[in-house]
Amino acid sequence: MKDAVEIIAEQFRRLPGIGIKSARRLAYFMLERPQEDVDTFLNTIKEARAHSCYCSICGNLSTSDPCPICSDDSRDQHTLCVVEQPPDVQAMEKSQEYHGLYHVLHGALSPLDGIGPEQLRIKELLHRLESSQVKEVIIATDPDTEGEATAYYLSRLIKPSGIKVTRIARGLPAGGDIGYADSITLAGAVQNRKEI
Predict the structure, then answer these.
(1) 24 exposed, middle or buried (CB, 10 Å; 0-12, 13-18, 19+)?
(2) Concatenated DSSP letters for 149-170?
(3) Is 181 exposed, middle or buried (0-12, 13-18, 19+ CB in 10 A)?
(4) pLDDT at 1 (0 to 100)
(5) Where do the zinc-finger regions (C4-type) map (predicted)?
(6) Residue 49 phi/psi, 5° resolution?
(7) Local structure of 129: helix, strand or coil
(8) d(CA 106, CA 119)
């Protein structure tokens, strides 16, 4: 039988971005904590998981349905930002620049991985647009092949309805160095340039 460190490390490795060294370090850390700290940690995760759900309107992960964003009448009801995953909503909110509503697709088109329009919340998006006062859809999918394909697909579906479709700009990050940027990032920066 494997020792306790390896058993726990295997579980931590199931988390995104955790390699074997980090998993072992976390396993040792948890095994060295007082039992009450470990119990609190585990109970917190169990409680949070038991009280979490997906918003029936936008698809974001929340502790209420509808979520606080969809329930907030002070938000711009005319703008809808389409993102791939729930963490993308949090990232957009951190910017404090966007004050509209969201729609979470729960993925991006990837035919090679068997992810087509039916696996995403695209049908729900179109239904939502039919029965709302949305005048602009901002597509904020990732700037990778799947995200770009998803953005193009959505724009082709939405534009005939007369709703304005925009795409978030992309380019160099603040504090970035042009000499170290990849060609796709630089191309996006040039395409999305603006007058100063």
Answers:
(1) middle
(2) HHHHHHHHHHGGGT-EEEE---
(3) middle
(4) 52
(5) 55-70
(6) -65, -40
(7) helix
(8) 8
Q: How far apart are CA 12 and CA 15, in angstroms?
A: 6
Condensed to tens digits (0 to 9), the pLDDT of residues 31-61 reads 999 999 999 999 999 999 999 999 999 999 9
Phi, psi angles (nearest 5°) of residue 102:
-130, 160
Separation CA 146–CA 153 (nearest Å) = 10
Amino acid letter, residue 43: N
DSSP notation for 19-87: -HHHHHHHHHHHHHS-HHHHHHHHHHHHHHHHT-EE-TTT--EESSSS-HHHH-TTSEEEEEEEESSHH
- Amino acid identity, position 187: A
Structure tokens at 131: 């029965």
Beta bridge partners of 100: 76
